[in-house]
Design brief:
The structure holds 2 protein chains of 2 kinds. Chain A is built from 5 helices and 5 strands; from the N terminus they run E-H-E-H-E-H-E-H-E-H. Chain A is an alpha/beta fold. Chain A has one domain: Response regulator (Rossmann fold). A 5-stranded parallel sheet of chain A has the order 2-1-3-4-5, sandwiched between helices. The model of chain A has no long low-confidence stretch (mean pLDDT about 85). Chain B is about 50% helix and about 20% strand. The longest helix of chain B is centred in the middle third of the chain and has 58 residues. Chain B folds into 3 domains: about 100 residues, Rossmann fold (3-Layer(aba) Sandwich), CATH 3.40.50.2300; about 60 residues; about 160 residues, Histidine kinase-like ATPase, C-terminal domain (Heat Shock Protein 90, 2-Layer Sandwich). In chain B, a hairpin with a 2-residue loop joins strand 9 and strand 10. The chains are: A alpha/beta, B alpha/beta.
């Protein structure tokens, strides 16, 4: 069965473009346009991987989403789902996490990439994270 | 404290008294006095003066020097010089040097009041103009920020779609389709580059990066920059040399900014080079507390008449325009701002057809900072 990916991004077009790439590589993709919708879909879809945007809503709501998924009991069974962040926050805010951003409390995610991302790079990261999650 | 603060600097007690009495009657004036230059300058700073009345003939420190010191320490203070008729030529000289008006001795209380009022009105007007100008600049920055952010998201999406199509997600492309979409993608990427540079410059202008200042090894950044641009250099068959950074000096700065600076300089050296050319990044031993980074290329060069403009926003040289090389016209503007933010200096020398040298001087971190 194909791996399921949940995209949480408020830019529907950006999500659609990623979906094109992922679906043509036999992943099954669902998208959510807000962190709240993302949390709902998480329970319906049971994704194998989450692609997360950061700058949603009025601030960096993507960070809050990641903290909920990784930190709250309600989402316990999804706490091991890899989270790949795609963001343009560095250019938007001048704020960037040096090196690998994996702080377990502050920013509990697995990998961060800057938007836009080359299809090959996206597929490679997705494959890598899914592989690591299985083993 | 309310009211306007006036400082009278004169060694003649009679004049000091006359000024104090005449101006002291006005409720809105706070008047203080000093009898020589150094104490006068201190008083101007202490009182937060709006106006200084300065005698040109002072013992010790000359009135002209006092004017210069006030202009330097408190540029917003309006200065009026007090002078005897025989020295009216020096009053004119003082006004050339920034004094707003002069008051010839002897003067009547009315004359004093008129000159003081006019000078204070002028100061107020200037302050208002300055405030308006600052507000305008802030609004402009806000607008740029907003516009750039609003532009960035759709550009990302368009580029992502173009990449998706080029990756064959909507079926195989024939060569013509591939070329057209490839060109579309490059143009969008170029526009995104402009927006990004714009945001960077804006951020620098609003001083938001200065909080990140800490001691940094410039040599390490130079190596990193050379790594980042390695593939681009190889693609154009340009050799990148890194020289002499064993003498690794620390500079105080924002890491991201300085790296961006080196990358932009190196990127230009690569982009505007000839195939098979070279770019050399050379870091030299600190002299007079400054470390020097030279970026030398063997490229097209910059004609002399264009050199004064290369750091201007959106300036692109004639040679660049015809070369088919993508550029935002903002890279060097950004470099210039970064150098400025780090209290450094940048210079360019170039010969058309032979290449260019960009020289950046940055202050070395001092010993205390080095040990912290």
């Amino acid at each position: 069965m194909s791996k399921k990916i949940l995209i949480v991004d408020d830019d529907a077009d950006f999500a659609a473009a990623m979906k094109l790439v992922l679906e043509s590589n036999s992943y099954s993709v669902e998208s959510a346009s807000s962190p709240d919708e993302g949390l709902r879909k998480l329970k319906e879809v049971h994704p194998d991987l989450i692609l997360l945007d950061i700058m949603m809503g009025k601030g960096a709501d993507g960070i809050l989403f990641a903290r909920k998924v990784r930190g709250e009991n309600e989402y316990d069974r999804y706490s091991k789902v890899p989270i790949l962040v795609l963001t343009s926050m560095r250019k938007q805010t001048g704020f960037w996490f040096p090196g690998e951003a994996k702080h377990p409390v502050f920013f509990p995610i697995d990998k961060i990439l800057e938007k836009p991302v080359k299809p090959e790079a996206l597929l490679e990261e997705v494959k890598g994270l899914l592989g690591a999650a299985v083993s | 404290m309310s009211g306007r603060a006036i400082v009278v600097i004169d060694d003649d007690e009679a004049i000091r008294d006359a000024c104090r009495q005449t101006l002291g009657r006005e409720a809105e004036y706070r008047v203080s006095v000093a009898e020589d230059g150094p104490s006068g300058i201190e008083e101007v700073k202490r009182a937060g003066a709006d106006l200084a009345l300065v005698d040109l003939k002072l013992p010790g420190m000359d009135g002209m020097e006092v004017l210069a010191a006030i202009a330097k320490a408190c540029p917003e203070v309006v200065c009026v010089v007090i002078t005897g008729y025989p020295t009216i030529a020096s009053a004119v000289e003082a006004m050339k040097r920034g004094a707003y008006d002069f008051l010839p001795k002897p003067f009547t209380p009315d004359e004093l009041r008129v000159v003081v009022k006019r000078a204070l009105d002028k100061g107020r007007l200037e302050a208002e103009t300055r405030a308006l100008w600052q507000e305008r600049a802030a609004m402009q920055r806000e607008f740029v920020n907003l516009a750039a952010h609003e532009l960035r998201a759709p550009l990302n999406a368009v580029q992502q779609f173009a990449d998706a199509i080029l990756a064959g997600t909507a079926g195989e492309l024939n060569p013509k389709q591939r070329e057209v979409i490839g060109r579309m993608r490059e143009r969008v990427a170029g526009l995104r580059g402009v927006v990004d540079h714009w945001l960077d410059i804006n951020r620098l202008q609003s001083g938001r990066l200065s909080a990140e200042m800490k001691p940094i090894r410039l040599g390490a950044l130079v190596e990193e920059a050379a790594d980042v641009l390695g593939p681009a250099a190889r693609a154009r068959r340009i050799r990148v040399n890194v020289e002499g950074w064993e003498e690794d000096a620390l500079v105080v700065g924002d890491r991201q900014c300085l790296k961006e600076m080196v990358i932009n300089l190196l990127d230009n050296g690569i982009k505007y080079n000839k195939p098979g050319g070279e770019v050399t990044l050379k870091l030299s031993r600190p002299v007079h507390g400054k470390v020097k980074l030279e970026v030398t290329d063997t490229g097209v060069g910059i004609p002399e008449h264009e050199i004064p403009f290369v750091f201007e926003e959106f300036f692109r040289g004639e040679a660049c325009k015809g070369s088919g090389v993508d550029g935002t016209g903002l890279g060097l503007t950004l470099v210039g701002k970064i150098v400025q933010l780090h209290q450094g200096a940048i210079g360019v020398s170039s010969r058309v057809g032979e290449g260019s040298v960009f020289t950046v001087d940055l202050p070395v971190a001092d010993q205390q900072r080095r040990s912290s």
